[in-house]
Every structure is written in C-alpha cells, then in structure tokens.
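Researcher: I need the complex structure. Ligand is manganese (II) ion. Inputs:
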Amino acid sequence: MAIPVFRAAAISQSQSQSLIHFLSSTRSRVDETIKRRKKMVLSCAPSELNPTQSEVSFSVGTYLIPHPKKVDRGGEDAFLVSNYNGGVIAVADGVSGWAEEDVDPSVFPREFMAKASSFVGDEEVNYDPQILIRKAHAATSSIGSATVIVAMLEKNGTLKIANVGDCGLRVIREGRVIFSTSPQEHYFDCPFQLSSQMAGQTYLDAMVSNVELMEGDTIVMGSDGLFDNVFDHEIVSLVARYRDVAEAAKALANLASNHAKDSNFDSPYSLEARARGIEVPFWKKILGMKLIGGKLDDITVIVGQVVSS
Ligand SMILES: [Mn+2]
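Model: Output:
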C-alpha cells in the first residue's frame, strides 16, 4: 500500500461567513472545564506560608470544529484532557491523505488519543510526554497516521511538551507569547507524522521542550487548523478578553473557522505558502491575483489556565 503523507491543502474559495453547525460525535464539541477547588492543606501559620511553593494545575477549556465537509463524521482531529498530576492535554490530527486509500483518517488519531489516555498514569511513562507518545503509538493498531502533541504539567509548574508534526502550543504570559512550538515537516504541507507504517516518524523524532509556568499563564494548544488561520497576536488579544477557558477556546475556534472560510483573509497559511514560492495559476496571476485566503481544516483548540491548587 502506498503511504500517503500529503495533507489536503485547499485554499478556501467560499465567501460564506456563517458558522458551522456541529454534530455531537464522540469527541466533537466538548466544552470541558476542569476546575479544581483550592485546597487548604497547609497547617503552618500564615507567616510561614511560602507562595513560591504553592502547587499549580490547569483549568482547561476545549472546542473542536470539524472541516465543513467532514462534519457528519466529526472531523479527523482528536484530543485528550486529563487532570492527572497538574493536568495533561494532547491533540492528534489525522492525515487526510489516507482517505485516498479507503482508510478513514479519523480512526488512527482517535485510537492514539484513547491509548495515550490509558497510559497517562503509567509507571514507565513516569510523566514524560515522549514516552507517553512511544507507548500510545506502539499500542495503536489502526491503519493511518497523525501529527501529535502532548503536554504534561507537573504540580511544581514544569510543563513538559513533546511534539511530532504541525500541531502547536503557545504559552502566554502578561499579554505576550513567551514560548511557541515550531512545526516539523518534510516539505510544505507534509508534516512529520506518527504512522501505522514503518515509513513514518517515531517518538524519537518528537521535539521536546520544558517550560516553567507560573500561576496566571495561559496555554493555547491546537491542531494546525488553528495556527494556519489565526495569527499569534490575534490569539493573545482574544484570550485576554475571556476569563472562562471554555469560552476562550470556543471564541478561538470560531475565529479560526471564520478565517478558514474567508477567501480574502491573508492567513498565516497563505503567507507561508507565498513565502515558499507557491503561487496561483498563471491565468490568475496575469489578472493580478495572488494566493490568499484561509485554509479549511478541522480546528481543535485547548486553552489551559495555570491556577494554584
Ligand atoms: Mn489539520
């Protein structure tokens, strides 16, 4: 069997600005907020309290908008949220090229996330997202491939990230992006991916990062459907407008969806395409047209707020 590694790359031609209606499939439209109540477990006198030693965890909101043509099946992104330790968040984006091989591209990322979920507290994983990826990949038996990002927060504030492909994560502190993952790809629109086939990447190809988080930091994780359609400065200003993480995730996903369907929006994706020398056909070029527009895709957004716990 040929191994599809292409991701369908359609610049939107639609002028429609209407919002998509969602189907409630297994993982779509999950507005999930994990809010932990502050625990008063300290027994020392207030004067002995050391605020730098307080433990932190995530308050998490999620939102998924499937590709307009894949709404009936819930799209090909999958994600997981766990409150284990300080919190675990992950996104897997199924590579759509598998549809050409009569393989449903959504099956592999969903099984991958389900397996990852089962290994979150595993002794061998020992809170290392790269090992979690290794174990989940080995346990996934479906045919297909996916880009995958996993982030695990320790209660001392260390966020451990492992990323294979072009899902992404931003850390926002006091109105600025202080950390950003970078996409890994073979060539434009062909990301690194974990596959059922030998030809794909492995956990060893993951880009691994550790970031020290502080109470009040905001994490935005998403599939490429978010970052191809929304600029970082838009993410920063939008997140600042919401106190509720579920509302922030929904607003970011809706912004990405609107941009994706806007053929006049000069998206991060179209900017990048032009920077790589990809152009519109000759007959459009002589009419003065340029490659522009959003990119239709499944859009997954996870917003995590670091809170003391
Ligand atoms: Mn995608």
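Model: Summary of the prediction. DSSP finds seven helices and 13 strands in the chain.
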